[in-house]
């Protein structure tokens, strides 16, 4: 019963308050009819293709009685990022360290295995290769759950500094039937070539639609001294020269 003038805008608010960490689907359907009750003329309604038939309501006299706009809505709950202490991975520059990082996923809903729910979301960048892992969950029944995970960076500059020096791999998963918490255990490899201190966010998404985020901090300290150059004076006001070679690691 909303009257809409020509070229007038209509805002339709949509609210989302999930009670489970799973993907929800709905549709906003807008049905428009002429205010005077007349139909839009259409010469041959029998020639309507299938796509158009789902977007209009045809009257008995062959005219178009109403027009439908259908907007699919996907609700993906995201666990609120609390003020957690970040998982710190520290390594001396030009060295390599492996660290074990555990992340608890609360509110996981066992049951769905549709990866389409995950791939349709905007959490994982489709331009980047995503790590897909399966978690076997058993709680009186057998359910296979899939997870996507990736590291997200605050800026492209931080990404360029960290991406080639950090590797992350899911090595173990645990399921607590009482608390219904899935714990994912990651092996993080950090091999920096220069001192740095950068933050990142580990984003985990379940095939049922839930999203969890965990802060991480990567610290690379000063490297060890390569060598000590001793310059011995040959006399007062005389120049002493020592030569040494430097090898570049890149072109």
UniProtKB/TrEMBL annotation:
**CFAP47-like immunoglobulin-like domain mapped to chain residues:** 82-221
UniProt GO cellular component terms:
cilium
Q: Which domain of life is it from?
A: Eukaryota
Single Gene Ontology BP annotation:
sperm axoneme assembly
Q: Which PANTHER family match?
A: CILIA- AND FLAGELLA-ASSOCIATED PROTEIN 47 (PTHR45912)
Give the protein's recorded name: CFAP47-like immunoglobulin-like domain-containing protein
Q: Lineage of the native species?
A: Eukaryota, Metazoa, Chordata, Craniata, Vertebrata
């Amino acid at each position: 019963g909303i009257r809409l003038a020509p070229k007038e805008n209509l805002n339709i608010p949509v609210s989302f308050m999930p009670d489970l960490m799973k993907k929800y689907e709905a549709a906003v359907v807008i049905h428009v009819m002429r205010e005077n009750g007349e139909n839009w003329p259409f010469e041959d309604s029998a020639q309507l293709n299938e796509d158009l038939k789902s977007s209009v309501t045809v009257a008995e006299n062959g005219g178009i009685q109403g027009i439908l706009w259908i907007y699919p809505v996907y609700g993906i709950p995201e666990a609120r990022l609390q003020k957690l202490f970040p998982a710190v991975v520290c390594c001396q520059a030009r060295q390599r360290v492996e660290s074990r990082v555990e992340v608890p996923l609360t509110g996981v809903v066992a049951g769905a295995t549709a990866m389409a729910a995950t791939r349709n979301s905007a959490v994982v960048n489709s331009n980047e290769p995503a790590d897909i892992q399966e978690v076997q969950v058993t709680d009186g029944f057998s359910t296979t759950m899939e997870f996507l995970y990736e590291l997200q960076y605050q800026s492209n500059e931080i990404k360029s500094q960290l991406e080639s020096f950090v590797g992350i791999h899911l090595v173990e998963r645990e399921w607590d039937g009482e608390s219904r918490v899935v714990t994912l255990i990651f092996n993080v490899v950090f091999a920096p070539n220069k001192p740095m201190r950068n933050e990142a966010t580990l984003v985990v998404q379940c095939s049922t639609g839930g999203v969890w985020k965990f802060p991480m901090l990567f610290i690379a300290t000063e490297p060890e001294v390569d060598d000590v150059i001793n310059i011995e004076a040959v006399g007062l006001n005389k120049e002493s020269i020592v030569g040494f070679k430097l090898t570049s690691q890149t072109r």
